[in-house]
Amino acid sequence: MKPSLLCCALFPLSLLLFSPPVLARTIAFETLPALTRQSGDPNCPPTVIAYETNLPYQEGGYALNGTANLTAIATNIRFAESRPFSVTWTGTLKPAYRNCLGTARMTTVDGEAYQDHSYMRVWYEGGQVYFTLDMTGNRDPNNYTTSILFQTILNGNPRWRWGGSD
């Protein structure tokens, strides 16, 4: 079979022409230093960036893959805690940020203000960063709690998949 015909035999032409490109959403977290700070330099990371991508639709549900770029501000990323509806990763803050005491929440998605439930959160304490993906209070269209389907560490950064029913 000719290479030009092979593509059409493997993928219907309608999928090649009409499938939307899969783009990751860029999620920015703004850091809020604590009012009561630790002694020393209170320098905190100004932002943390995460990315989420919708997976192709599957009848009955939806899912998103995500990752957070913690290696930009920390080393030795590892699991801190995993529960049925949440997972927390932690890492050692880089020297410039070691004295940070504060939190961060989702503030923009693709540059647009984010006003909804912040299902991802960050906090800095004791020379560590903690990143939590939390499905508590996050519901799907059928009023079920969304689920964390997969969690790992890839290339030193948290990686996850979450989803729900439709």
UniProtKB/TrEMBL annotation:
Signal peptide boundaries:
1-24
Q: Record's superkingdom? A: Bacteria
Keywords, A to Z, come to: Signal
Q: What is this protein called?
A: Uncharacterized protein
The organism of origin for this protein? Lyngbya confervoides BDU141951
Q: What is the lineage of its organism?
A: Bacteria, Bacillati, Cyanobacteriota, Cyanophyceae, Oscillatoriophycideae
